[in-house]
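Dear Dr. L.,

I hope this message finds you well. Following up on our conversation about the binding site, I have prepared a predicted three-dimensional model of the protein together with zinc ion. For your records, I am including the exact sequence and ligand specification that went into the calculation, followed by the C-alpha cells. Please feel free to forward this to your student if that is useful.
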Amino acid sequence: MILGIETSCDETAAAVVTRDGEIVSNVVASQAELHARFGGVVPEVASRRHLELIAPVIEEALDGHEVDTVAVTSRPGLIGALLVGVSAAKALAWARRLPLVPVDHLHGHVASLYLKPLDRQPPFTCLLASGGHTMLLDVQERGGYRVLGTTLDDAAGEAFDKGARLLGLGYPGGREIDLLARQGDPTAYDFPVARVPGLDFSFSGLKTALLYTVRDLPPDELAARRADLAASYQRAIVRALVERVEATGAARVAVVGGVAANSELRASLPDAALAPLALCTDNAAMIASAARYAEHVPYPDYLSLDARPSA
Ligand code: KG4
Ligand code: ZN
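The resulting structure of the complex is given below.
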C-alpha cells in the first residue's frame, strides 16, 4: 500500500492506495474558504495552513493501515506549499525506513485515470486542464507522456477563476461559473476563441473580452446579465478546449484536472474517459496512483530530495 501526500497549492491531501489501484482512503482538506476573501491563493497563507493540517490529514488517511511506500508531490507548485508535503513525507519515510517516490503533479492528474474502477489503459490523448496548466498529452504508457500542446498564457482554470472575479463571483471561480451558467444563455455574448497555431491554447484574449464587456455594462444591467455572461464565457472556454482535442484526431481521449469537473465540458466530450468528479481537483489518491509507475528513491538518498516550483 502506498501513502500519497499532496500540498502543491491550496489542498492539503493524503490518501492510501493499493498497488493495483484500489483507493483505501482519500482525505482532502480544502483551504478555499481561507483564500476566498483574497480572491485567490495567497502562497504564504497556504504554506502556514498546510503546516497546521498536514499531520491530522495524514493520520486520518492512514487510519491504522500499514503502508510500504510514501509518495509525495515534489513539483511543480507553490514552493512553500510543496515543502510542507515533502518534509512530512521525508520524516514519515525516514521514521519507518520506507522508500519515497517523488511525483510530478501533472503525472498525478493523468494517473487519476489509472485508479479503479476506471483503470484506463493507454494509449490515449489526454486533455489536462487545471488552475495552473492546460495541456494536450500523448500517453503511450502509464509511466509518462509526451506534451503535444500547452497554453501560451493563462490556464483554462485560471481563465475561469479570473472570469468569476470579473463577474463578482466567489473563489474558486470554475465551480461558481459552472453553476451560474446553467441559468444563462450561452449564445447571448459572442466571446472570441483564440486560434493559435498547432495544438497550443491561449485564454488571455478571452479574459480581456469579458473585462471590456463587463466594464461597458451599467451596474444594474450587469446584475441582470451575469448568468448570460457566465454561460457565454464558459461556452467559449469549453469550445476552445474541445476544438483542440478534436484537432488531434485522436479516437481515444481522456480528460483530467480541476476543469474536467466542468459540466459543459463533460457533456461536450461524451466519448472521452473523464476523471471521476472527486479525482478532478487536487487530491493525493492520484499522487499515490502515479507513484505506482514512477521510480522510488531509497533511504537515505531521499533526505536530500528538493521541491521544485517548475515542472
Ligand atoms: O487541478 P486543480 O484542483 O488544481 C491545479 O492543479 O491547478 O484545478 C483547480 C482549477 C481551478 O481553476 C478551478 O476554478 C477549476 O479547477 N475548476 C473548475 C470546476 N471545478 C474546479 N472549472 C470549471 N468548472 C468546474 N466545475
Ligand atoms: Zn492540480
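In brief: Residues 105, 109, 130, 282 surround zinc ion (ligand 2) (CB under 6 Å).

With kind regards,
A. P.
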